[in-house]
Write a structure and sequence with these properties.
With 151 residues, the protein is α+β, with helices and mostly antiparallel strands. 58% of the residues lie in helices and 15% in strands. The protein has one domain (2-146). The protein is built from four helices and four strands. A four-stranded antiparallel β-sheet has the order 1-2-3-4. Helix 2 packs antiparallel against helix 3 (86-108). It is a multi-pass membrane protein. It is found in: Cell inner membrane.
Amino acid sequence: MRKWLALSAAVIALDLYTKHLVIKAFAYGEHLPITSFFDLVRYHNEGAAFSFLSQAGGWQRVFFSAIALIASGIILFMLRRHSTQKLFCFALALVLGGALGNLYDRLTLGYVVDFLFFHYQSFYWPAFNVADSAICVGVALLILDSFKKKS
């Protein structure tokens, strides 16, 4: 279980470090074009994925924090119970690290810092961060793992 918690800690550390760099280097809303399809930005997300409920008046901060805490407890239980299932635990560790990285922002700042911004012509993907990436990769791996033949 230690290696899975170490992976989660690495995700949290990378997430918080990159957000720290963005906060120091960018003013809110500032864009730095890197390629024709990718910018570094500084946005604040008070909601969930794709700014869901970001304009809900503040209760969403407590709600999403509670969800992150409950999910983290469930993930820790599952990591302990299934510690020999490598892909499953790897995926859970990514989700745990991402959830706790964003939870830290929510509790300390009141919002989540997003800074990775992809676009193509007039099509824009909502900005996201390392924690969001870890959660997405973790969920994709959990789906992949669910198709594996269980012995």
